[in-house]
Amino acid sequence: MRYGHSVEAVRRAEGALMARVPEGALMQRAAAGLAAAGADLLGRVYGARLVVLVGSGSNGGDALFAAARLLRRGASGTAVLLAPERAHGEGLAAFRAAGGRVTGADGGAGVIAHADLVLDGITGIGGKGGLRPEAEPLARAARESGAAVVAVDLPSGVDADTGEVHGPAVHADATVTFGTYKPGLLIDPAAERAGALRLVDIGLDPAELGTPALEALQHADVAALLPRPTGESDKYRRGVVGVAAGSRRYPGAAVLAVSGALRGGAGAVRYAGPGGAAVLARHPETLVSTGSPHSAGRVQAWVVGPGLGDTAEARTAVDDALAADVPVLVDADGLRLLTPEAVRRRTAPTVLTPHAGEAAALLGRAREEVEAGRLRAVRELAARFGATVLLKGSTTLVADPDPERPVRVNATGIAWLATAGSGDVLSGLTGSLLAAGLAARDAASVGAYLHGLAARLSEVPLTALDLADALPRAWRNVSE
Ligand SMILES: NC(=O)C1=CN([C@@H]2O[C@H](COP(=O)(O)OP(=O)(O)OC[C@H]3O[C@@H](n4cnc5c(N)ncnc54)[C@H](O)[C@@H]3O)[C@@H](O)[C@H]2O)[C@@H](O)CC1
Ligand SMILES: [K+]
């Protein structure tokens, strides 16, 4: 598992550790890790040209000490001081002693143009708001130069706790972060500014960090959660997933949701609705009925919504599924037929899987607002509906109705997933994991993980059916 902790938690753990170690020791650990990452990126340190962007806090101190280490290995460097009177004194002294030159913000763009490596030490976890006006041209110059841009702890200008970006921010090729990941490094739009992530252990005590704000499953976590048949399993004990999707108008959604469901580990898939003929043509193993979920027979979880349309039958399908005392996943058209009260009344878990536009409609807000503040939106939806909410996007988030539990973030997705029907496959897959017995947030986060991985393992441009076909490869990939 990869964890992200809030700034408050980091400050608390750092404070406790600082009381136990000699003054300056943490900054030296940070600087050593940062210098090592810089050296790896450069390949050859001797003769490399460095530029250090230095703000007024300890983030600049880290950058200056790291640069001093690289200068002692034969690099040359210039520090661009954004607040000359407030730059980290000891860091600056070490940098000068190692032969570093110093300039003001005005001289920055010129040196950046010839740099091999730019260290962004403008702000870290102490930063508020976007970059200040004097820093903006430097961030732009860094991005336009051929230099590798390494953010120190965080790309300056992004919000560490939420992943929001208020105004201009540094765009890094890599970020070297200290002690623990910060939520902003894992959630878009900030995550996209961070580039490749590298975590440097500075000795923070996990007990002092406390419960993370965010967690991201890794291969081993997913492998441990995947349902596996045992010697005693039969198809019913493995779980039956019901799919109420598709309509006369959109029969394809039925086929795609069933495709995902067949690859999610349940023992059998029941389909209920008007798309049965199309489903059987592609998946003869499906148990098909034409009525609503109520008359479809026993299942351990329902998936309702993809391609349902907004007819009376669609409404009945959603109401029927919600009335069943089993986990229910509601997606796409189904989301438009929901009320928070109907979801809150349920005792079995409910999973909602909106994309940003659907989430915006549920919250009564603009889509851009949801995209800019994904963490806030997913938490708010989970609280309002008392449901597990999977907010789709480049960094998919899964929030539990219990606000104390960390939000899960999935980073396996790729841009090619934005293709028609891809969400239908995800619904079927996640519903199948629910039917196989996974808890709601595990089913949602494992579903998102496998779905993204399947995309990575597919030929591109990919189609939704390719994704379903690639799921066994994703399954194998995490299990190996
Ligand atoms: N506290 C610790 O024990 C350690 C801290 N470390 C580093 O210290 C950083 C935190 O240091 P600080 O608390 O000094 O905070 P920062 O260095 O992140 O920034 C705070 C300073 O920036 C100014 N500032 C705030 N928003 C700004 C903006 N938008 N534009 C320009 N300036 C802005 C503030 O006035 C303040 O002077 C971490 O991110 C990490 O890099 C590391 O050295 C490891 C140890
Ligand atoms: K930074």
UniProtKB/TrEMBL annotation:
Domain YjeF C-terminal: residue ranges: 218-478
CDD domains to which the protein is assigned, alphabetical: YXKO-related
Catalytic activity: (6R)-NADHX = (6S)-NADHX; (6R)-NADPHX = (6S)-NADPHX; (6S)-NADPHX + ADP = AMP + phosphate + NADPH + H(+); (6S)-NADHX + ADP = AMP + phosphate + NADH + H(+)
Pfam family, one: YjeF_N
UniProt keyword list: ATP-binding, Isomerase, Kinase, Lyase, Metal-binding, Multifunctional enzyme, NAD, NADP, Nucleotide-binding, Potassium, Transferase
EC number(s) reported in the record: 4.2.1.136, 5.1.99.6
GO BP terms in the entry: metabolite repair; nicotinamide nucleotide metabolic process
All copies of domain YjeF N-terminal, residue ranges: 10-210
Cofactor note: Binds 1 potassium ion per subunit.
Entry cofactors: K(+); Mg(2+)
Keyword Kinase assigned: yes
Binding site for AMP: K392, G393, S394, T395, T396, G423
Keyword Ribonucleoprotein included in the entry's annotation: no
Family label: In the N-terminal section; belongs to the NnrE/AIBP family.
Entry-linked PANTHER family: ATP-DEPENDENT (S)-NAD(P)H-HYDRATE DEHYDRATASE (PTHR12592:SF0), ATP-DEPENDENT (S)-NAD(P)H-HYDRATE DEHYDRATASE FAMILY MEMBER (PTHR12592)
UniProt subunit comment: Homotetramer.
NCBIfam families hit by this protein: yjeF_cterm (TIGR00196), yjeF_nterm (TIGR00197)
Name of the molecule in the record: Bifunctional NAD(P)H-hydrate repair enzyme
Organism for this UniProt entry: Actinacidiphila yanglinensis
